[in-house]
Amino acid sequence: MQRKKIIYSICFIGLIMIALSCNNRGKKDAISSDLVHIPVSAEGENSDLAMPKFEFERTDHDFGTLIQGEKVSFTYKFKNSGTSDLIISTVVPGCGCTVAQFTKTPIKKGEEGFITINLDTENKKGPLRKKVAVQANTYPAETNLWFSATVELP
User: Fold this and answer.
1) Cα–Cα distance between 50 and 65 in angstroms, integer?
2) What secondary structure does DSSP assign to 67-80, as a single string?
3) Res. 144: pLDDT tops 60
4) CA distances to 4, 54, 144, 145 from 59, in Å
5) How far are the Cα atoms of 19, 95, 116, 119, 129 from residue 7, in angstroms, in the given order?
6) pLDDT digit string, tens, across residues 104-130
7) 33-152 carries CATH number 3.40.50.280
8) I want to staple 80 with a disulfide (CB 3.0 to 4.6 A). Which of 48, 84, 86, 106 is the partner?
9) CB 67 within 8 Å of CB 154
């Protein structure tokens, strides 16, 4: 009897997780996949189609020495040096201590955009080296930005 209750409980939890994971309809920030074209052949070669391209001022930032609990931010600026609109689909920080904001509209050829990271050093100490993965309709589809800091106790 006890074993049946456990099995039913696991099945019930599984069904709830499946139902919740399928609820992606109606998101305002979602970008249609019709807008993203990555013209790469199976051999990994670029075709001659128009492609957007990131041109960052810098892809690595050192915050220097920070005091634990300090909150800092940095903005990575970039230009679309490609030949078509650049669309950032998502920015994924490498840890829970970082939040990112970014240009959410298509960036036309020659225009500029930004990715701002906000770092909270609460409960951190020692050297930090973290990445932020930027996913866009570029080739390659993911570009990594890096930041570092040394966090000291107050």
Assistant:
1) 43
2) ETT-EEEEEEEEEE
3) yes
4) 54, 11, 7, 5
5) 18, 34, 46, 43, 43
6) 999 999 999 999 999 999 999 999 999
7) no
8) 86
9) yes
